[in-house]
């Protein structure tokens, strides 16, 4: 559903929302997740509001140059890759956000889903990759009702990254304002 969709009345009552996807309170996904699937997520716990996510932004920071044919600055591709999806709490209605079941295994894989891709290799040896999956550009948003969640699945060793975060932004609407 789009933010400008006519199925939402009282658009002026919308509240801007931003948050990180987290795991046990941490928002930095730079550990070893190779022993099994690990999920950084955000769950809508507000029974009175529906959340419409317009953007999911991934940031990766590390020492050394990034290459399009590897993941971040790890020097290799990911074995299992990164998957982005949303689902209800029971997992019965799981949908991949990027519209495919193919995981992100290397930096250039993001270019299949967005043109909002910035890779900075600076003179200090530190590199930063920022990817914005902007759902509003496609006139849609990820809708999270109460107990629905958005998640990034990881199943690789990411300990060499200095920072690896996922943030979301959008708007909340009172359920009474949804048609």
Shape, per Cα inertia axes:
globular
Helical fraction equals: under 10%
Which whole number gives the mean pLDDT? 85
Number of domains: 1
Number of strands: 10
Distance between the ends: 12 Å
- Largest sheet: number of strands, sense, barrel closure: 6 strands, antiparallel
Radius of gyration, in Å, reads: 17 Å
In DSSP terms, counting alpha (H) and pi (I) runs of 4 or more, how many helices?
0
β content, as a range?
35-45%
Order of helical and strand elements = EEEEEEEEEE
Structural class: mainly beta
Unreliable stretches covering 5 or more consecutive residues: 1-6
Your description of this structure?
The chain has one domain (19-177). It is 0% helix and 39% strand. It has strands at 15-20, 38-43, 49-63, 83-87, 95-96, 117-121, 126-134, 142-144, 149-154, 163-174. Strands 1, 3, 6, 7, 8 and 10 form a 6-stranded antiparallel beta sheet that branches. Strands 2-9-4-5 form a 4-stranded antiparallel beta sheet, with no helix packed on it. It starts with 14 loop residues before the first strand and ends in a 5-residue tail after the last strand.
